Structure formats: structure tokens, C-alpha cells
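User: Before I run my own analysis I want an independent prediction to cross-check against. Here's the chain; please return only the C-alpha cells and, at the end, one sentence I can use as a sanity check.
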Amino acid sequence: MKKVSVTIITGYLGSGKTTVMNELLRKNIDKKMAIVVNDLGSVNIDSELIKNAKVIENETLLEMTGGCICCTLRAKFMQELQEIAMREDIDSILVEASGVSNPTGICEGFVVYEKKFPQLTFYLNNVVTVVDASRIYDEFLEEIRDDSPKDDADIVHLIMDQIEFCNLLILNKCDLLNAKQLSQVKEVIRGLQPEAEIIESVQGKIDIDVIFNCKKFDFDKVLSSSTYQKSLDRDEANEANGMDDFGITSFVYKEVKPFNYNKFMQFIDDYPKCLIRSKGYMWFSQHPKLIQLLEQAGKNITITPISNWVAALSKSERNEMFEYYPEIKENWHEEYGDRLNELVLIGRGYDQRDIINALNNCLDD
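Assistant: C-alpha cells:
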């Protein structure tokens, strides 16, 4: 019986998982792959980034939103994998977990289902953790090194678990650190993860063979680690306190009116510290043709023009887009066309009204 291999790409919010996914898909030649993208929020921006990168022409893409495949969506996730794996045209499944997914919970799902259903048509081949080297150095280095998390204890412990619970680790954004700083980050990571191969990367560029041909993930070996037991203790305490996803929540900001570039830059200068991760599409009145991609992870914030709005195309080009993508017309605005600010904002302890008001104040008059 054919068994389809599953590769899990995990890592904290903003580490570069989607960039790594796009790199793998871009370089893939011979594998018939299905893609599963899990996002905490109700809008799956990561799946849109993969679609827009135009690297999934021959792949199947499944979006899972509104929860994490390590807990609330785990049963559904396993069922979806079984259905995908039974297809004759699929021989590999690539999964991007949400940034707050605990890989322990995801991997436990495989163990449980293998015991319940011995005839499973898929298996867990490897778990790849993507780590933002720059963010580890800037925000979490001392707390991880001393194992003494303070205000963000749950988040630091989650990052530690993600580093430990893998068989391959991609140390991304290495270009943002000097050699000494990078060495300190690697030393701390090695203290948590002595076994996994560490691959240094810039902008998610990696050798595809390293991902798919690495040593198979050994759940029992990782299971026996002391850090894992601490993770179990924390999960039990969190469950007793009614906590979910490490207290991290998200909401979507949607507005068709354009932002004023200067006002938005002022907002970025004093970006709310309670926001851990932000991502989405936006537009400025000063640049009405361009789709801008906002990406924020901790202190790092970028706004990048990625393509033109359909409304900015010529009439013949618009008609061609409507023919191929009729769904564009469904939300077409009489004045702005498909132009839209749609941002997913993820954080802890924020006042949603305050952030919405601040963003509304950035809109063009």
C-alpha cells in the first residue's frame, strides 16, 4: 500500500515559514505535492502569499483557519491528510503550521491516529522548524539561555519547544546578524537541540534535497526529553486556567479606503508593542496602482510593493483577469475596484478598538 510522506514546517510568528514554503515549491520538479496552510486568524494570508507567488500550478492547496492543527483543528487535520493521501496524484504533503502551533501536539496526532488506524495512507517524515535568528538575538536570547522567561514566559517556552521538537532546523534571516551574534544564537539553539541539523538561510533560500532527504523524524527520541515534560506541565496548567494558544489572539482589519503614506509611516514609528505579528495587503492613496504587502514580526516591519491591483490594469487586461478569476467581481467596489486594506493583526493584551482607531486615523482624508 502506498504511503504518502508528510513534512511539517513549524516556527514562531514571522520566522519565515511561508518564504521557505515558496522556496520549496519553486524548486520542486518531480514531486506531486499537496499543500496545507494553517493560520490562526480567520483570513489565511499565508495561503494567499503562496498563491500569489505562482508556485502551486500543479499542487493542491488546502487552507485551515480559525485554530491550530496542534489542538482545536487536530482531528480535522488528520482526516484531511487521510483524504489527500488516498489520491493517486499525490505522493507528498507539505504542511505550514500556524506560528503558535506546538509541534508536540501535531506529532502526537500522528501517533494517536497510527494506533487507531493501522492502515493509514500517510506518515510523518520530518518536522522542520524555521527560526528567525535576528529576533532570537534581539528579544529572546537571554531568557532562553538562562531558561528564565519573564513577561512572555508562555511565548518563550513555545519557541523553545519548537526548536527542540524537530529533526531539521532552518536558521533564517542570518544576514541581519554579524558573525559573533550568529554564533551566540547557534550556541543557545544547540543547548536546546543537540541532534537536529542546522541550516543557515537568508530569505528562506535552502536546498530542497536537505528538506526531503533528511533523517526521518523520531518521535520517541524527542518525547523522552526533559523539556518536553515541562511542556506537558505548562499545557496542563494552561488548560486549568482556560488559556488557549498561549493567550495569543488575532483580528482582521478591513477597509477599502486608502491609507495615507505619511500617516501610516508615523503609525509604524510607534507600532503597538502588543502586536507580535501583522501581515496583509494594503494600498496608499499616493501609490494607487500598487498592492503593498505589510509584514511585521516583533521589531522588524517591512512594506513591499508586490504587484498591481486589477483595477489599475487596462480594460482589456481587466477583462482577461475577470475571465480567469471571476471571483474578483464578487467583492468589486464601485469606486475602488479590488483595492482593499486587509490586515491580520496578532498579539496579546491589546485593545482592539484602540488599534482600529489608530489605523482609521491613517486613512486618507
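Sanity check: The longest helix spans residues 226-240.
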